[in-house]
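Table S2 (text version). Query chain:
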Amino acid sequence: MKQKLLLILILIASIVPLPTLARDFTYEYEGQTLTYTVLDEEAKTCETKAGTYYDAGNKISGQLSIPDIVEDESGNKYTVTTIGSYSFNGCNEITGNLVIPKSVTNIGEGAFFMCSGFTGSLTIPNSVTSIKPAAFGGCTGFNGSLTIGNSVIAIGHDAFNGCSGFKGDLIMSESVNSIGMGAFQGCEGFKGVYISSLESWCNIDFEYCTSNPLYDIHNLYLNDELIKDLVIPESISEIKRYAFYNGNGFTGSLTISDGVTSIGEEAFYECTGFSGSLTIGTSVTTIGGRAFYNCGFTGDLIIPESVTTIEWGTFEGCSGFNGSLTIPNSVTTIGNGAFYNCSFPCVISLNPVPPIIEKIELGAPFEQSYCEKTPLIVPDGSEEAYSSSPVWEWFQSIKGLESAGIDGVDSEGERAVRVEGGNIIAPEGSEVFDLSGRRVSATGLRPGIYIVRIPGGKAVKIRL
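Corresponding structure-token output:
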């Protein structure tokens, strides 16, 4: 029995090759000797020798030169495909520019951690697919631009954290789909983040708000032009969380097209530079918590009918709105702090049933002092329901749509909008909404009450 078992083991061993032990060798290139570790003897690939957080795999000084191809002592040639983890960790006496070979596909964790002596610009070659955590963390000497190659898919947490010396452009690749926490935190020296596709940008999974380079860099360039008015095209269906976090370089309006169905949590958090209107497309069904926290929008805010829930803190701190707030009849729930510290001169809620206020104990959607001095307009016949509902009861002036008065007069007292037959005549660029918040054509309308947003963000109500 034992002999039979031994024969089986020998047979298995002859079929399944045993793994080879990692083998190190040294190679001199341009006057500098580095240690390499074989990754695959058959494929003839290797990496610069890995180290640990406490001890570098290669301890060197001066100009670092890494070739594409290296040779061992027997003359066998190997392709350098990986910069090993912590390979040059803490080598702060390295000087000059860093050129990464085009053969490299992976830059390991902490590969150049705290190598503060590098200068100039850094280009991640198109061969690289992954930049591991802290790969360049603390490399404060770089003082040019950073280009992310067009094959990079993932950038690990803290990959470039603390690289405060960069003064040029951060050029992002369309291939990137995930960025870890703190990847570009502390890189405030960059002029801006340069992208070539909003679709690709909105598709990035940012692990946390500090994953987004806009957290410290603020300015976003599309095809070399600084974005002032941001338009999310119809080709985008989802704006992922933190997508434009702290992008306060935007100075105009934000238009979210009808193709978008979801806006992620804190997507436009602290975009304080916006000074124009906010237009939310009629297909948006989900708006994440604090999506527009502390943005600088002006004019009116019309929530589209496709939205049923306004999450916690969604528009908190948006104190620049100087027109009315229109909540459609589709909204049934409003989260805590949703409109806290906003200054709408008028609130219009079109649901005959007062929307439920969630988690009041964590903070109401409006401040009580604000409600006491702001008129609330609701569907006729629902005034009593609102006046006896939590938070809504704080409004001292609750009127039905009819008694609130319907007009087509703007704040300057000029007739900005008029009616001719079943058509609404308004200034060029105006948008017409029904009382459910849906955008409609300005012609061939049925009798009823409509809200017209005219250029500049101001809205008027008008009856046909």
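Notes on Table S2: The helical segments are 2-15, 198-202, 214-217, 368-372, 383-387, 401-404. The longest strand covers residues 32-40.
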